[in-house]
Amino acid sequence: MNEVLTQEEINSLIKGLSETDIEDAALELELKGKNIKKYDLSNQERIVRGRMPTVELIHDRFARQYRTTLSKFLSRTCFANVAGIELVKFGAFMKKLPLPSSIHIYRMPPLPGYAFLIVSAPLVFGAVEILFGGTGSGRVKVEGREYTPIENRLVGKLVLLALDNLKDAWAPVHPVDFIYVRSEFNPLAIAIVPPTEVLIVVNIEIELDQESTSLQICIPYSTIDPLKHKLTTSFQSTRLEIDETIKDRIANILFEAPAEIRVQVGYGKISLSRLMTLETGDVIQLKNAPGDESVIIIQDKPKFFGITGVYRGYKAVKITRKIPDADLIKLKNDLEVQV
Q1: Which of 207, 242, 277 is the C-terminal boundary of a domain?
Q2: For position 245, what pLDDT does the model report?
Q3: For 211-232, what is each residue's pLDDT tens digit?
Q4: Cβ atoms of 294 and 265 closer than 8 Å
Q5: Do 231 and 299 fall into the same domain?
Q6: How many CA atoms does the CB half-sphere of 54 hold within 13 Å?
Q7: What is this structure's pTM?
Q8: Which residues contact 332 (CB under 8 A, 6 or more apart)?
């Protein structure tokens, strides 16, 4: 059944559209002179971009350590450096990965979730060729086939070495463990986070016998979010490396600090009424015998027993033994010093 709008209904619709256009135009005119930008709540890149300088410092330290580790493992001179850090959506990044892809998933306890590491095909076949006596500069066509068990085993060793170096690189910022979980061949088979999750991709460029290869460390933003307060502070970067010179200087100053030493030959207690009646010639009985050891007190704390005497014309004390814990309890009640 056909329904035809009356002229009154048509006029009402036109009036409503006209009023909406006027309101939108008035709103745009009102906001035109103000510094207001559109904000997309689904795009987290605006939140995290350029605000974690410590991440670059951590992976720069990792690159230096991994360069040494890889050179020892392959018995060849290798170079590694951070080529860049980018923030991308997880779904878009995984779609761009080629086949085959050597993807290795790991955990970072106590941080939640998973992260993964991607070893490029040139690095895989270059390392395998070098380990089997080749030059590492051969060209291998890898499209369309999976890695062999031997290749997977050798690359797994490279990944475990990388995880050990990552653990050392993170240690000055926060103690994080790196636990290997599994490897994957197909990028589309990995679903550790939703496709819209922001991924921090650290590109490590590795030069292997003049052949440029790469290693990509991929960490979901939600994984390192608990440490955001440490990663966003550039002040933390000054403490990544321990300055041994400063440690030695502080130790020398502490070792040269003076400490007060006293020797208590005898001790005892009297009442206040007896104290008020003391006169010259009165004898006060002490608790220790004449042949007992004296108490050596350092910084108001009894530490040793000793024997007093004279050494090279000066009064001196010879340490005989350390005060046992059982005697310290008794001395606490007898001596007016802080134990």
Answers
A1: 242
A2: 75
A3: 788 899 999 988 988 888 887 7
A4: yes
A5: no
A6: 22
A7: 0.55
A8: 339
Nearest to 321 by CA among 302, 339, 306: 306
- Distance (Å, rounded) from C-alpha 148 to C-alpha 163? 22
Give the range of the structural domain holding residue 106, as residue numbers without chain letter: 45-242
Residues 309 and 207 placed together within one structural domain of the fold: no
212 and 316 housed in the same domain = no
Residues of 228-245 as b/e, b for ≥16 C-beta within 10 angstroms?
Answer: eeebeeeebbeebeeeee
Distance from C-alpha of 167 to C-alpha of 175, rounded to nearest angstrom? 8
Q: How many CB atoms lie within 10 A of CB 160?
A: 14
284 and 213 in a common domain:
no
What is the per-residue pLDDT across 256-272, written as a single tens digit (0 to 9) for each? 888 888 888 887 778 88
* The two three-digit tokens of residue 204, written as one number: 């490590």
Provide the angle, in degrees to the nearest 10, between the axes of the packed helices 149-170 and 121-131: 110
pLDDT score of 303 more than 60 = yes
